[in-house]
Amino acid sequence: MSKIEFSKEAREALAEALSRYLKDELDLEVKGFDAVFLLDFISETLGPHFYNQGLWDAQAALQKKLDLISQAIEELEKPAKL
Fold first, then answer.
1. pLDDT per residue over 29-53, tens digit each?
2. How many C-beta atoms lie closer than 10 Å to residue 35's C-beta?
3. How far apart are CA 6 and CA 17, in angstroms?
């Protein structure tokens, strides 16, 4: 799998959100490069798990739709007389 990458703006926004969360919820000061490094760690470690779960969820949703289409096609079948 290729590395999960964010645009510069998204990376900065995510690091800032992470900093705010850590400060608000844990009273922990993590800013600047430290926040970016923590974001990179989270992205590299946890990101693939969330990404894969998203793929599996999308595949399951698509399979449900394909099953409905298959059922609709079967309902269109006409009885054949021999």
1. 999 999 999 999 999 999 999 999 9
2. 21
3. 14
CA distances for 55 relative to 3, 14, 64, 67, 68, angstroms:
16, 22, 14, 18, 20
- Token pair of 34, please? 């430290």
pLDDT at 4: 82
Please report which helix (H) or strand (E) contains residue 61, including its range. helix 47-76
Question: Which tops the pLDDT comparison, 1 or 64?
Answer: 64
- What's the one-letter identity of residue 71? Q
- Residue 27, Ramachandran bin (φ over 0: left; ψ between -120 and 50: alpha; else beta): left
Q: Tell me if residue 5 falls in helix, strand or coil.
A: coil
